[in-house]
Design brief:
The chain is an alpha+beta fold. It has a domain at 102-176: Helix Hairpins. Helix content is 26%, strand content 42%. It has helices spanning 9-32, 102-137, 143-176, 221-224; strands at residues 41-47, 49-72, 77-81, 89-90, 95-99, 178-180, 185-190, 197-198, 203-220, 232-237, 240-252, 262-270, 281-298, 303-305, 308-314, 320-331, 334-339, 346-350, 361-365. A six-stranded antiparallel beta barrel has the order 2-9-12-11-10-13. Helix 2 (102-137) runs antiparallel to helix 3. The two termini are 63 Å apart.
């Protein structure tokens, strides 16, 4: 393409700008005309292996919070603050709600004043009792007068003890008018509001602990006898595609559903970062059955393309092709597959996210420790 020159003034500048714009627009067309050749993409590959693995059974499950608590007020009062709002993450001891404390503080101060008076009178009665005892032993006063002094001392001692207990009770009630989180977790529901009167035992908020979660799995009776507390399990979640979590059997409950003939089994999983929420759907794989030889590849080789799971194989001409596979039992960073992949095939484990069928690659080996 040739642009005209030699025209002076503004027209020359205008033509130069038009020429530059046409060159920019023509660049993609020129590049496309160069042909289908591509620079090879740099990838890492690992050879598929044959390994002995135990068979697995995969069953659906539902995530449940390990601890659910309806936090209640243990004293009555008017709610003046409610920091524990829905969705808030709290640590153990964080304030969830505060009740109005003015009346309780005034009552406490009155009882403390009464206690100070009683302790002063007790101190005086104790001194009077010592003098009365000396006078009685010296024969100066009668037995009745000595008994009166002793009675006066005992009365004030009882009064002081009663007031101490009252003060301690009021201090405890005052402390409990600040309602705190009993454990670290998340507030999932508010059960009161600022300005509402709560009675002792009235719920304030509902909390769940999500540091660890439990997954409830209904296990058919044919597998029931093969599971034991502490057995390993692998968990995947529909809401977290690509994640594989390690769990263990927490409880095998020996009470079958009378209609489905399934036994509830609880699997506990750590919830680092709080990504797992109660109610999520999960798939739980339990190792059981005979040990058989299987073709295994690193988990990094697995690529999910919609409903299909594929592994990219490096061919002899250094191009790649997607091979559909079905995944099976996992063993560390490796996973068993069923499909056209054979032991010794080179499968892409790094850089496989954007590969296309037939794409040329420059493949560098990457070793994984065998299970």
């Amino acid at each position: 393409m040739r642009c005209l020159a030699g025209v002076g003034g503004n027209m020359q500048s205008f033509r130069a700008q038009v020429c530059a714009l046409l060159l920019v627009l023509a660049l993609p067309v020129a590049l496309a005309a160069q042909g289908p050749g591509q620079e090879p993409s740099l990838v890492r590959y690992t050879e598929a292996r044959e390994h002995n693995l135990r068979g697995t059974v995969t069953l659906p499950g539902t995530v449940e919070a390990a601890t659910v608590s309806l936090v209640a007020s243990t004293v009555e009062g008017l709610v003046v603050e409610l920091p524990g709002r829905e969705g808030r993450r709290v640590r153990e001891g964080d304030v969830l709600a505060r009740l109005r404390t003015v009346s309780k503080e005034l009552e406490l101060e009155a009882q403390r004043a009464a206690l100070r008076e009683a302790e002063a009178r007790l101190k005086l009665a104790e001194a009077n009792l010592r003098r009365a005892q000396e006078l009685y032993e010296a024969g100066v006063i009668s037995r009745q007068q000595f008994d009166d002094a002793q009675s006066e001392f005992s009365a004030w001692q009882g009064r002081a003890d009663t007031l101490k207990a009252t003060v301690a009770r009021l201090e405890d009630e005052l402390d409990r008018m600040t309602i705190r989180a009993p454990f670290a977790g998340v507030v999932v529901r508010e059960r009161t509001e600022v300005g509402q009167w709560v009675n002792a035992g009235s719920p304030v908020v509902e909390m769940v602990a999500l540091d660890t979660v439990e997954i409830r799995v209904d296990v058919p009776e044919r597998y029931y006898t093969r599971l034991r507390t502490g057995h390993r399990a692998e968990v995947t979640l529909d809401a977290l595609p690509g994640s594989r979590l390690s769990g263990r059997v927490l409880a095998v409950i020996p009470a079958a559903d009378p209609q489905a003939r399934t036994f509830p089994v609880k699997v506990v999983v750590e919830n680092r970062g709080g990504r797992i929420g109660a109610g999520m759907l999960a798939q739980v794989s339990f190792p059981m059955g005979e040990i058989t030889a299987a073709t295994i590849v690193p988990k990094d080789a697995i690529v999910r393309q919609g409903p299909v799971t594929v592994v990219y194989r490096v061919n002899g001409d250094n191009t790649v092709e997607p091979v559909p596979v079905e995944t099976g039992a996992a063993a560390g960073v490796w996973i068993a597959i069923n499909g056209a992949i054979r032991p010794g095939d080179k499968v892409v484990t790094r850089g496989n996210e954007r590969l296309q069928p037939g794409q040329p690659v420059r493949a560098i080996p990457l070793e994984y420790e065998l299970p």
